[in-house]
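Sanity check

After download, print the first record. It should look like this:
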Amino acid sequence: MCTTTTARFYPGTCLYEGTNLSEGRGSEAPFQILGAPWVDPAPWIEALAPLLPEDVRVTPVSFRPTFSKFQGEECRGIRLDTDSPVLHDAFGIGIRTLSAFMRSHPGRIEFTTRPTLLHPFFDLLAGTSWVREFLIAGAPPSEIEARANAEHAAFAAERQSFFLYSS
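Expected structure tokens:
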């Protein structure tokens, strides 16, 4: 990762690797820049801006990836930025950006598979298929995040019995 800001967004925007949208690989800000040649950033930003925390900015961007998806093609999309040293909700931001994209560009997202996988790569990145299924069904991001947080809390509690030392 080229910057700490990129690393802050990665846990959420890595989900784009399992879609037909660029996650910004080959740009100056991978995992902060998201888009494709056919994206109109204005409606995406309009749908997304109210969903973001105050410390996250979203702006329109044009970029030409030097490798990976859409290599050499002019792409349009969004750029996420923050000055915060800690981004507490990267996964939620990834879910919100995807949900806003799907609302602003109906029918344009595809969940891709890798040659060695039978199931969508997105499911491997998300750790489950229900996140993709909820997004496709149009569930609000808050519902997806609430379920993910509940599953995380249940796992955190369950793993306690396996620790050798108290934390």
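If your output differs, re-run the checksum step. Summary of this record's structure: The helical segments are 4-13, 41-48, 90-104, 121-126, 130-137, 141-159.
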